[in-house]
């Protein structure tokens, strides 16, 4: 049987030999390699040349189990899944049962054309995803009644925290007071406490529905609508009072409820936030789900995250692209207003397609049925003598049962129903679209209801127990896209059309440096839709989720093993949140030691931009450390900065291997200098794919790191999310890792208890996709992970060697090797030929490739990362394309083609551009469309020509354009 590692790693033994030949590492088996003791393996020699001796780890004993086959792995997962019990969840608190339309599950969630795509930074080859996200933004904007929505947030609770920060910078009030609704979701209140404390915001809780007055000074007010208790009330007076105080009014709203209720915008809100989970996205034990944020006119440029806009291409046709805030933290660094650099694209696509499939009438009917069933349950409970606390509600009831709440919740659990224990006298019950009349009847029986019921049918016009004064009267989702795909046939074809406009890993290599676009194996993906994992409520009782908890403990232990740390928290639901959690752990450690003056964070100038933004959000002051001409941290400048800030030094954030794609030789010395001054070392784990099996962060001096499961551990990028960013730490920092008030257990792998503040709405973050990384490690084993690292490093060095004569490789290590990625310097090309990095990136589309990472970390460069998953044929195809593009640029410089009319500046070429009108270019149609003959059978045609980014920012449109625009 073929080992999984051999399926995952694209380089065969024969290909490996040819690549090593190109690197000058071929040798006779009986000829020892100088300086490598008795080793004769040339691939091992390459790794010794790349990885510094001071951190190099020999292959040996590991706590990772031996690699399992794909069948064995699925069997083990089935056994873990069998330990979970999927009861009828009626807990609510922002997580609800929902029906995922099969056409969406099969054609989006389970379709590699959607889940293997990258963030749409190259918009010409991302038009399908971008249209789906425009649909999402339109859906959110319409339902919230606000002018502009972004293309998703990480979850509801983090969206509220981001809205709080938006309010502070947008408000004209000069104070640090933020008012929180006492009836907000408990997980949101916990997360707000974490985020506010780090940046000096004072939280004041008020029972707003009960009429408690606002403080005299505030910069923002947050209202839950409907409230966590289910109560519905009119917050417009509170919103008006906030505005009088120069504050910003934020409303967390349930989108399904908004199909029946007045929108936050109509009530005067400035910002609306929430989740789209109940729009067809399974609960997944807490995630991933697409949060949302929408703002009134005037706040568009304050939005965190990503915003999709409409621009036009070179032919003047409408085209989508990311607008305004694209990777703003990489540009503004410590001045960034948010550290978020991912969204929840795959889940936002699912939620948007749920709205497209059902349309406004279908959504309204689902909401009406939920409201009607909740009201019916209220009537049955009243018959039983129970007291429903609130008269007005949508889907959630709080029921008073003096002293009996715990017993009722326990009886319900025994009957297969999960209710919420609010307090000793109160039970919470939530109804959703999956709740049946049988569920309602069985629930009423728990409160002493009748054994038999006779009731009439209520139709789609029901408004349940909603107050008439708050019923919605305006229309929404009026765009034709929400009315055109009612049949499954139409929906299937629409999803296929959108997917065909995109470039994903199912088409070819995506050689993005810093992003690790590797194989997302089908076996790894198989279990995420199993009901035992997908249908779990994140606050279900511990005994219902023992299988998931066991899997989580195993994954935590494995990640600790491969990184050299002691404890791991899987709660952060993005790499940016993992960064923040790690820095908050360092902050908590210093405060516990009485070192509250330690607030300075040293960050190399080459670092990921999110590092600086995360440090600011953790309450730290950023001090930049210079890099030398080789891209390494400047040791002299580091020592000088340490000396100046020794008493205030909190941490150093360093990416290893470096952002420049090399293994810094002095990393142990760097970390020791920080420790000697009393600081902690944060090692950014973004480039862990170049290290696994050969070195460990904890061994080279790291105290804490975040990991990117969507990079190194094979969770798909999903077109820009989901991401998972666990935080791993040494034992002394473990107590300060993220805890959660609603977690099923306090202890984690290794027996550690985390007491830090929550950084995500759910205790285990995006738990629904953790089986992917669990499966990856289980099937690779320690040796497979090591082989993957070597294959990735081999491929990157092969690319550097073959392209070095055509494009300078900007940075290498002391022995002339790169890590898992290399930076090609295109600035000399521009100087000699006038051809820019943008021209090369767009011309690669004509050759059938996604471009590498552009102008990061150095402007005018391309960062290339082939990963271990690509075979030599595909790597060579990319290399040959780059060599041909260099020849094309030289032809422009030689005068063969004009500088303003050549295949590069006009790239990419659409099919329409080749057949419309007379061909009056200086090059042939064949030059444009088929620069190599191999493309004739497999050509990818971009749907639009080069997009005018500046036009889109000057004419900001972030909702579905009218059909006439495409005429």
TrEMBL record:
Cofactor(s) annotated in UniProt: pyridoxal 5'-phosphate
Location of the Glycine dehydrogenase C-terminal domain: 788-909
Enzyme class, first EC level, given as a word: oxidoreductase
Enzyme Commission (EC) number: 1.4.4.2
GO process annotations (BP): glycine decarboxylation via glycine cleavage system
GO MF: glycine binding; glycine dehydrogenase (decarboxylating) activity; pyridoxal phosphate binding
Record-listed N6-(pyridoxal phosphate)lysine modification sites: 711
GO cellular component, as recorded: cytosol; glycine cleavage complex
Reactions it catalyzes: N(6)-[(R)-lipoyl]-L-lysyl-[glycine-cleavage complex H protein] + glycine + H(+) = N(6)-[(R)-S(8)-aminomethyldihydrolipoyl]-L-lysyl-[glycine-cleavage complex H protein] + CO2
Alphabetical list of SUPFAM superfamilies matching this protein: PLP-dependent transferases
Gene3D superfamilies: Aspartate Aminotransferase, domain 1, Type I PLP-dependent aspartate aminotransferase-like (Major domain)
Subunit (UniProt): The glycine cleavage system is composed of four proteins: P, T, L and H.
This protein's name: Glycine dehydrogenase (decarboxylating)
Organism listed in the record: Microbacterium esteraromaticum
Gene symbol of the encoding locus: gcvP
């Amino acid at each position: 049987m073929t080992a999984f590692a051999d399926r995952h790693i694209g380089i065969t033994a024969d290909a490996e030999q040819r690549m090593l030949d190109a690197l000058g590492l071929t040798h006779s088996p009986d000829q020892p390699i100088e300086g490598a003791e008795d080793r004769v393996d040339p691939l091992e020699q390459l790794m010794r040349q790349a990885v510094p001796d001071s951190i190099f780890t020999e292959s040996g004993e590991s706590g990772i189990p031996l690699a399992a086959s794909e069948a064995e792995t699925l069997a083990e997962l089935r056994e873990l899944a069998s330990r979970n019990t999927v009861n009828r969840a009626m807990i609510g608190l922002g997580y609800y049962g929902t029906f995922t339309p099969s056409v969406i599950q099969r054609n989006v969630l389970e379709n590699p054309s959607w889940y293997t795509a990258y963030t749409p930074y190259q918009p010409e080859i991302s038009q399908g995803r971008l249209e789906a996200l425009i649909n999402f933004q339109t859906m959110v904007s319409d339902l919230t009644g606000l002018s502009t929505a972004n293309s998703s947030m990480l979850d509801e609770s983090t969206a509220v925290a981001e809205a709080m920060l938006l309010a502070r910078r947008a408000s004209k009030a000069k104070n640090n007071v933020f008012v929180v609704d006492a009836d907000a979701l408990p997980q949101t209140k916990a997360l707000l406490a974490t985020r506010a404390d780090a940046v000096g915001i004072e939280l004041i809780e008020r029972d707003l529905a009960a009429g408690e007055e606002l403080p005299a000074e505030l910069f923002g007010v947050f209202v839950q609508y409907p409230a966590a208790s289910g109560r519905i009330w009119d917050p417009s007076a509170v919103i008006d009072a906030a505005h009088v105080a120069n504050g910003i009014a934020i409303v967390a709203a349930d989108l399904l409820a908004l199909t029946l209720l007045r929108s936050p915008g109509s009530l005067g809100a400035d910002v609306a936030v929430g989740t789209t989970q109940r729009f067809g996205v399974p609960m997944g034990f807490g995630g991933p789900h697409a949060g949302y944020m929408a703002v009134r006119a005037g706040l568009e440029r304050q939005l965190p995250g990503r915003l999709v806009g409409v621009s036009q291409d070179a032919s003047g046709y409408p085209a989508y692209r990311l607008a305004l805030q694209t990777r703003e933290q990489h540009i503004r660094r410590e001045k960034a207003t948010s550290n978020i650099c991912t969204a929840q694209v795959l889940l936002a696509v699912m939620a948007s397609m749920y709205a497209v499939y059902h349309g406004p009438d279908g959504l309204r009917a689902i909401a009406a049925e939920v409201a009607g069933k909740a009201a019916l349950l209220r009537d049955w409970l009243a018959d039983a003598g129970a007291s429903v606390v609130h008269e007005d509600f949508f889907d959630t009831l709080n029921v008073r049962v003096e002293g009996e709440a715990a017993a009722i919740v326990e009886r319900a659990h025994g009957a297969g129903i999960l209710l919420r224990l609010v307090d000793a006298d109160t039970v919470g019950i939530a109804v959703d679209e999956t709740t049946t009349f049988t569920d309602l009847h069985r629930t009423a029986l728990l409160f002493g209801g009748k054994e038999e019921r006779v009731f009439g049918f209520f139709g789609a016009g029901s408004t349940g127990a909603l107050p008439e004064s708050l019923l919605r009267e305006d229309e929404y989702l009026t765009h034709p896209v929400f009315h055109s795909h009612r049949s499954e046939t139409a929906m299937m074809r629409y999803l296929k059309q959108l997917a065909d406009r995109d470039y994903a890993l199912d088409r070819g290599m995506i050689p993005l440096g810093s992003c690790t676009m590797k194989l997302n194996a089908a076996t790894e993906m198989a279990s995420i839709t199993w009901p035992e994992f997908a249908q779990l409520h994140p606050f279900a009782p511990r005994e219902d989720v023992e299988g998931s908890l066991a899997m989580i403990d195993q994954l935590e232990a494995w990640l600790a093993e491969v990184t050299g740390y002691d404890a791991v928290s899987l709660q952060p639901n993005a790499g940016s949140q993992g960064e923040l959690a790690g820095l908050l752990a360092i902050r908590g450690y210093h405060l516990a030691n009485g070192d509250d003056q330690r607030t300075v964070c040293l960050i190399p100038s080459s670092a990921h931009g999110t590092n600086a933004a995360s440090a600011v959000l953790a309450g730290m002051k950023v001090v930049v450390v210079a890099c030398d001409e080789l891209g390494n941290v400047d040791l002299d400048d580091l020592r000088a900065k340490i000396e100046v800030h020794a008493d205030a030094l909190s941490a150093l954030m360093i990416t290893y291997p470096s952002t420049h794609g090399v293994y810094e030789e002095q990393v142990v010395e760097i970390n020791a200098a920080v420790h000697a001054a009393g600081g902690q070392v944060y090692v950014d784990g973004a480039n862990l794919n170049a290290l696994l099996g050969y070195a460990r962060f904890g061994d080279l001096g790291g105290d804490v790191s975040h990991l990117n499961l969507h990079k190194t551990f094979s969770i798909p990028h999903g077109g820009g999310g989901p991401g998972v960013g666990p935080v791993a730490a040494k034992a002394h920092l473990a107590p300060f890792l993220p805890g959660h008030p609603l977690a099923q257990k306090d202890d984690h792998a290794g027996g550690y208890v985390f007491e830090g503040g929550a950084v995500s709405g759910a205790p285990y973050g995006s738990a629904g996709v953790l089986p992917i990384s669990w499966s990856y490690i289980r099937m690779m084993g320690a040796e497979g992970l090591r082989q993957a690292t070597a294959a990735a490093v081999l491929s990157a060095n092969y690319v550097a060697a073959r392209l070095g004569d055509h494009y300078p490789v900007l940075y290498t290590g002391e022995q002339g090797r790169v890590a898992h990625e290399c930076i090609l310097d295109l600035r000399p090309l521009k100087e000699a030929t006038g051809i820019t990095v943008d021209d090369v990136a767009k011309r690669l589309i004509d050759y059938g490739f996604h471009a590498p990472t552009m102008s990061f970390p150095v402007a005018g460069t391309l960062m290339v990362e082939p990963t271990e998953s690509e075979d030599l044929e595909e790597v060579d195809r990319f290399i040959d394309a780059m060599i041909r593009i260099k020849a094309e640029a030289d032809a422009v410089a030689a005068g063969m083609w004009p500088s303003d009319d050549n295949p590069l500046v006009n790239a990419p070429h659409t099919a329409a551009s080749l057949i419309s009108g007379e061909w009056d270019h200086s090059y042939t149609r064949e030059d444009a469309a088929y620069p190599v003959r191999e493309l004739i059978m497999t050509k990818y045609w971009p749907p639009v020509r080069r997009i005018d980014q500046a036009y889109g920012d000057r004419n900001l449109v972030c909702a579905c354009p009218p059909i006439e625009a495409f005429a």
